[in-house]
């Protein structure tokens, strides 16, 4: 069948005119949605996902790698302002290996191996020393970059030539610039570790000659000289002081919040720490022990003639005076010797720095939270409880102050109102979302119901139109004759069913009798059936 353009157009317009407004919207929106989905799928399939193969590149390294990728005809994208290179995920591994074979990305122009292994014609000792210094700087930079919180590092060494006289020898110095990773920081111990690394790696370099900066120009190496400034607290000492104050404040604040409620009290602490390291040597002497003991006793007895009158007779040997007598003398000597070992006890105590020398605690209580007649009693109780919780020692000079003043609640009320308003808006938005969802569901159900009703009406109209179509006279007569013939056949079949012969009636009665006998005597029927089967065999 041939159709002209006018008939096709008329058919389309007729079909469009029969559609309701929701049906027209769905008829247009559905193909558009399918087309958009197909276009998006094709776009996604034709644009693969990219992954980064190198990050944190310098401009020179990025330029070398992109030139190589252009020669390899590999698609790539630049990210992070040109410091990162991304390639299709499926090609990432192969591209990385190809670039590695080409020696990319390249590091510094000077390396340790080049400095030691290569010798140039006409090179002087100064040139070789310069290449050695550059190679050492590169190796130190590579070592510093291995630190977890260091993104990049630059090292500059100043190593003067050695002289014959010590007083003319210049000091070796080093300067380090660190670029830390985003969100990270460096501690004092790490700064000292970096300085010790440089001092151990460079000949003649001392800790005080190392300067360390961050990327913002802040001097980090000041902590190396803080030990020589006794009047200045180091960063570690400040952190310890703040930690002590904060722990005391939190302990007291949490206790008061449980008693009076959050926001009813304010606690502030101030701690003075003693960072002096005290060494105490104690020597104690005991009674000792006896090592040796000796006792000596000596007795002596002498006898001599006594004295006589003066004269020749008494002085000539051999002559004795008539009245001469003998004189006897005796002596006794006793000595004791005791040797003792001294009992000595030596004790050394080293007192670690960081003890609390003085602690001050201030507590401010909201006067509106308690009645006026209980303020004094409450202040006394708070002083006693806080003194016990914070470890206040009056003999040490610790101070605790508690006062009750009305708080300014304007900011708190505004904040509470803002929170209530935000909660109200959140509930309103939730209700609106629920309402919109319910409305869309109702609209969808309504459109679906109207579409089904419209289809049903269209089907009924089509059937009614077909029934009301004009029929030719000859066709009408044929239909009437066929209908009459069909009616006669049906009447004849009904009459034949109603009229039964005597034989059919007798058969029906026999069948009913057999059915009744089978229901009443199933065993007999079974035995009879078995007999019939046996006879047939």
Written account of the structure:
- The protein is of the alpha+beta class.
- Among the domains are: 42 residues; 53 residues, Alpha-Beta Plaits, CATH 3.30.70; 105 residues, GMP Synthetase, Chain A, domain 3 (2-Layer Sandwich), CATH 3.30.300.30; 94 residues, Alpha-Beta Plaits (2-Layer Sandwich), CATH 3.30.70.
- Helices cover 50% and strands 23% of the residues.
- It is built from 14 helices and eleven strands.
- Strands 1-3-2 form a three-stranded antiparallel β-sheet, covered by helices on one side.
- The longest helix has 58 residues.
- The chain starts with a helix and ends with a helix.
- The relative contact order is 0.05.
- The mean pLDDT is 78.
Structure in a nutshell:
With 537 residues, the protein is of the alpha+beta class. The chain has helices at residues 5-18, 21-46, 59-72, 92-101, 112-117, 125-145, 188-201, 235-260, 312-315, 375-390, 410-467, 473-498, 502-520, 522-536; strands at residues 50-54, 77-79, 84-88, 150-158, 172-180, 205-214, 265-274, 278-305, 326-351, 355-366, 399-405. The protein has a three-stranded antiparallel beta sheet with strand order 1-3-2, covered by helices on one side. It has a three-stranded mixed beta sheet with strand order 4-5-6.
């Amino acid at each position: 069948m041939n159709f002209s353009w006018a008939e096709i157009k008329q058919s389309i317009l007729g079909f469009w005119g029969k559609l309701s407004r929701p049906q027209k919207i769905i008829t247009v929106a559905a193909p558009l949605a399918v087309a958009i989905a197909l276009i998006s799928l094709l776009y996604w399939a034709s644009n693969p996902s990219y992954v980064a193969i190198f990050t944190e590149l310098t401009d020179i390294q990025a330029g070398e790698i992109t030139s190589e990728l252009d020669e390899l005809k590999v698609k790539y994208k630049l990210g992070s302002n040109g410091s990162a290179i991304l390639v299709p995920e499926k090609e990432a591994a192969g591209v990385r290996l190809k670039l590695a074979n080409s020696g990319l990305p390249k590091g510094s122009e000077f390396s340790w191996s080049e400095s030691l292994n290569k010798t140039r014609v006409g090179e002087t000792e100064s040139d070789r020393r310069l290449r050695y210094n550059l190679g050492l700087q590169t190796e130190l930079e590579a070592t510093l970059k291995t630190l977890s919180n260091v993104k990049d590092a630059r090292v500059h060494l100043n190593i003067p030539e050695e002289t014959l006289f010590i007083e003319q020898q210049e000091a070796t110095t080093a300067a380090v610039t660190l670029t830390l990773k985003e969100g990270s920081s460096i501690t004092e111990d790490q700064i000292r570790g970096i300085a010790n690394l440089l001092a151990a790696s460079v000949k003649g370099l001392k800790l005080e000659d190392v300067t360390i900066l961050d990327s913002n120009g802040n001097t980090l190496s000041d902590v190396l000289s803080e030990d020589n400034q006794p009047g200045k607290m180091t960063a570690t000492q400040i952190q310890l002081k703040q930690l002590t104050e904060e722990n005391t404040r939190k302990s007291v604040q949490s206790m008061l919040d449980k008693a009076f409620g959050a926001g009813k009290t304010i606690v502030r602490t101030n701690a003075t720490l003693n960072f002096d390291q005290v060494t105490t040597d104690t020597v104690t002497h005991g009674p000792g022990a006896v090592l040796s003991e000796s006792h000596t006793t000596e007795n002596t007895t002498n006898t001599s003639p006594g004295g006589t009158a003066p004269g020749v007779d008494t002085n000539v040997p051999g002559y004795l005076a008539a009245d001469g007598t003998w004189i006897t003398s005796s002596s006794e000597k006793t000595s004791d010797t005791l040797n003792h070992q001294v009992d000595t006890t030596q004790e050394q105590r080293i007192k670690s720095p960081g003890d609390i020398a003085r602690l001050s605690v201030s507590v401010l209580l909201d006067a509106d939270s308690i009645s006026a007649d209980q303020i004094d009693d409450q202040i006394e109780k708070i002083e006693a409880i806080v003194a016990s919780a914070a470890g206040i020692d009056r003999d040490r000079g610790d101070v605790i102050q508690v006062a009750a003043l009305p708080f300014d609640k304007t900011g708190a009320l505004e904040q509470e109102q803002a929170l209530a308003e935000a909660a109200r808006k959140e509930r309103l938005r939730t209700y609106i979302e629920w309402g919109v969802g319910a409305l869309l569901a109702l609209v969808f159900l309504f459109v679906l119901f109207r579409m089904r009703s419209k289809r049903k009406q269209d089907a009924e109209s089509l059937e009614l139109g077909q029934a009301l179509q004009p029929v030719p006279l000859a066709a009408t007569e044929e239909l009437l004759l066929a209908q009459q013939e069909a009616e006669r056949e049906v009447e004849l079949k009904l009459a034949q069913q109603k009229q039964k012969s005597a034989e059919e009636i007798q058969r029906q009665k026999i069948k009913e009798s057999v059915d009744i006998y089978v229901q009443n005597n199933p065993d007999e029927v079974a035995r009879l059936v078995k007999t019939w089967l046996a006879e047939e065999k």
